[in-house]
Design goal:
The complex is a heterodimer of chains A (285) and B (278).
Chain A lengths: L1 E6 L7 H11 L3 E5 L7 H5 L2 E16 L9 H5 L21 H5 L5 E16 L2 E8 L6 H19 L3 E5 L6 H7 L4 E6 L3 H16 L4 E6 L5 H13 L3 E6 L3 H8 L4 H4 L2 H17 L1
Parallel strand pairs in A: 1-6, 1-7, 2-5, 2-6, 7-8, 8-9
Antiparallel strand pairs in A: 3-4, 4-5
Helix pairs in contact in A: 5-6
Chain B lengths: L1 E5 L7 H11 L3 E5 L7 H5 L2 E15 L9 H5 L5 E3 L4 E3 L9 H5 L5 E16 L2 E8 L7 H8 L7 E5 L6 H7 L4 E6 L3 H17 L3 E6 L7 H8 L4 E5 L3 H8 L4 H4 L3 H15 L3
Helix pairs in contact in B: 1-11, 5-6
The chains are: A alpha/beta (285), B alpha/beta (278).
């Protein structure tokens, strides 16, 4: 079984549209949406949720004001400015380190488990999918990503699947790192802009840092062919292969509006470009 | 006045809106808080005059003093310390730097040492003051670096914060204490889905906000309908223009590619100030 994660560094380069196309093209696979704080894959795959499970993670301090003597010890040790003069905890600033809980001489501080989100096992027209929704302003996106991946793997093993197709999140931090571990390949989707190239190079470095095989796709390459050429060259000098290019085409947006993948709803040229990328990737792995 | 530019979905145009606005008004400081993938510098082109390494404190165990009692492991909720029979393992990438372990160690065997997670760089471009953070490759935790960037807010200026995408801790850290937030979206199902999440963040943090619809003529009209229904002001619409996209790809703001936009950004800024009594 092989796992492919689609990442980008910069947001909005087309990760999810490409992932959904792979979902349409690959045989015998499980999909996983690891962009847990702004998930979009479900908009194209329209999952029917079979199982919905609470994601509990981390703790938040809560001061019992009847027991609290306002000695100030907790405020002294808190490094996250989460306790104000009235000895009220700001749950958004609280990192749940429990320093205050341990230090409180009156035992007035309790640590409460957070309900940080939900995760789902669903059916889609292309096969099973594991996805999640992190609660608004919640932490631990990395942990939720790891959980989604673990469940997707269990499911793939049970079904004897050949592929796990993973939609990653933008950036290079905690959720991205969690989505990279143990994959067969990280596919970096970029665009021919200075920002796209700058961000792709950073995320390629991250993938290399963790020893992950990395390939690149240039989306909307014809918006700036010179820049696309530059990206190809820069990738070459970084020992990373550009395995395909996809042209800018308004039919991609139209397909998206109808909840369809490129394979189902976009014009022939883009469809072929994306299909070629998938075939190419399959060959390589 | 602190004005944040955020989005939920990535790639909707946060940076180009933030930098175009910065170039349209005077007395500005711009802070790029997207420390994982900072891009504002590509458009502002500041001359970097100074930089500062940002570290978080992580524990170092003095094994000559340690008696392996296990207290540090017990108080560390992040599982960043594992105490074995005759060895202590520290996992700095899991540490949040709360300081609990060293405080509670009965043998005084834990010292906190600095671990670099990234840099903050400062500079200037014409009259614009510029600050951004760059997370080191392989580091997971952006919020402490974002905090370090925001320490350099120079409050007599109009502050523009370019925020990262998403709805979790890095976004919250970036937009916290803002007076107003501009949410940049695009009228596609992805854009709308993530705009709704971003609006929930604004309401949770109690930050007044409005929406800029980028590439406003691609996609459908559901974003407009949503804003109308929710009584959310649409501050500006930017239709798709190949010229803007091409300019962007070279590192040009909208107001450099199409100077007539300068007035639109000024007008938006004036309206935000008026409607929110700044």
């Amino acid at each position: 079984m092989k796992q492919i994660v689609v990442i980008s560094g910069k947001g909005g380069t087309g990760k999810t549209v490409i992932t959904a196309s792979f979902a349409a093209l690959a045989d015998n696979k499980v999909m996983a949406d690891c962009d847990v704080d702004a998930a979009d894959l479900h908009l194209l795959l329209q999952p029917r949720i079979r199982q919905r499970i609470e994601f509990k993670s981390g703790v938040t301090a809560l001061i019992n004001k009847e027991v609290c003597t306002q000695c100030g010890k907790c405020r002294e040790v808190c490094r996250f400015d989460a306790i104000d003069e009235t000895f009220t905890i700001d749950p958004i600033s609280c990192e749940g380190c429990a320093f205050c809980h341990f230090v409180c001489p009156s035992k007035a501080i309790e640590m409460k488990e957070n309900l940080s989100g939900e995760w789902f096992i669903s059916d889609t027209r292309f096969g099973p999918m594991v996805h999640a929704k992190l609660g608004i302003a919640e932490e631990n996106s990395g942990k939720l990503v790891s959980l989604v991946r673990k469940k997707a793997k269990e499911l793939a093993e049970k079904n004897n699947s050949d592929w796990i197709i993973i939609d990653g999140s933008p950036g290079i931090g905690c959720p991205v790192i969690a989505s990279l571990s143990g994959v067969s390949c990280a596919l970096v989707v970029t665009e021919p802009t200075l920002s796209g190239m700058h961000d792709a190079l950073r995320v390629i470095e991250v993938a290399k840092h963790f020893g992950v095989l990395t390939k690149v796709v240039i989306n909307k390459y014809d918006l700036n062919p010179d820049m696309s050429e530059k990206i190809v060259e820069t990738c070459k000098s970084n020992d990373v292969e550009v395995i395909g290019k996809v042209g800018f085409d308004k039919s991609v947006v139209n397909a998206m509006v109808q909840g369809k993948t490129i394979i189902e709803g976009a014009d022939g040229k883009v469809k072929k470009e994306v299909t070629d990328i998938w075939e190419n990737l399959k060959q390589t792995l | 006045m602190i004005l944040s530019v955020a989005s939920g979905k990535g790639g909707t145009g946060k940076t180009i809106v933030a930098t175009s606005l910065a170039l349209s008004i005077s007395n500005v400081q711009i802070l790029d808080c997207d420390v994982e993938e900072p891009n504002s510098h590509i458009f502002i082109k500041p001359e970097i005059a100074n930089k500062e390494n940002v570290c978080i404190p992580v524990p170092r165990i003095d094994e000559t003093k340690c008696n392996f009692c296990g207290k540090c492991q017990e108080v560390c909720v992040y599982n960043a310390i594992a105490v074995l029979k005759d060895k202590v393992l520290v996992f700095p990438e899991l540490c949040h730097g709360c300081g609990s372990c060293s405080y509670f160690c009965p043998e005084n065997a834990i010292k906190e040492v600095d671990k670099e997670i990234g840099v903050v760089e400062f500079g200037k471009s014409n009259d614009i003051q510029f600050v951004h953070g760059k997370l080191n490759i392989g580091e997971a935790m952006a919020p402490p670096l974002i905090k370090a960037v925001k320490k350099h807010i120079y409050s007599i200026k109009t502050i523009i914060i370019d925020a990262p995408p998403g709805t979790s801790c890095p976004v919250i850290e970036s937009i916290k204490k803002s007076d107003f937030c501009i949410l940049v979206t695009e009228p596609t199902p992805f854009g709308l889905n993530d705009l709704i999440l971003a609006v929930e963040v604004m309401r949770k943090l109690n930050i007044p906000f409005g929406v800029v619809i980028n590439r406003s003529d691609l996609g459908d009209d559901k974003t407009d309908q949503y804003c109308q229904k929710q009584n959310i002001p649409v501050l500006m619409r930017i239709p798709f223009e190949r010229k803007i996209a091409e300019g962007y790809s070279r590192g040009e703001t909208i107001v450099e590619t199409l100077p007539e936009y300068k007035e639109k950004f000024q007008e938006m800024f004036r309206k935000i100030k008026e409607n929110n009594n700044f």
